[in-house]
Amino acid sequence: MATTSSSGPARSDVKVGRRRPTKGDRREQAILDGAYELLRDTPLRTLSIDDLAKRAGLSRSSFYFYFESKWQVLFAMLGPITEDVFTASRLIFERPVDMDPQEAIEQASAEVVTVWHRHGHILREVGDAVGAEPDLRSQWDSMLGQFIQAAADAIERDRAAGVALDGPPPRALAAALMWMGERNLGLMSMRSGNAIPSEDAVDTIATVWLRTIFGVGTRAQQDGEIAT
Known about the structure:
Arc Repressor Mutant, subunit A, Tetracycline Repressor, domain 2, DNA-binding transcription factor activity, 2 domains, elongated, 228 residues, transcription, DNA-binding, 10 helices, mainly alpha, 68% helix
């Protein structure tokens, strides 16, 4: 699995066993790293190919050797970042048998919000571009579909074990929860006034998942109810 550092996205297609990156690999990564930093302050729609090439220390023609367009750069960054989000979400999908749902959902919610904050400027650009770029929209839909299916499988397992509540079909419920999360986190990335305040994001997201699937609140909420 590829990893992504806070300084930039890692490539997800490096061949296993390669001992050192080639010159071409380094140039391609320089484009990705440069774009990752430029997008912190500048929307991709206003960046030119020359901007991306210059930041990477390359010529315009060298850029086109690796990418056909600036949108393809965003496409290349999305996979590794999504893997980061999926890893942060893993306790939702593969909760250990000795971990209660509240602990798992709370921990996963906190990790997802942390990762989303780290890569929010890239995910904001994806949200802005998917309506106009069919290939990017298809990739985003496919990736979200993997999240939805993993959550649906987890809901189905928990229902079969008598842990989760009965309700809508697992995939429909998982889709509703995932799209809710995607929209809310997207609003956070855009710094929308309608976004959940950052300090409330983890508790809000965890509460929605826990009450919807398991019929319980967070551990803090439960402790408060017991105390009163």
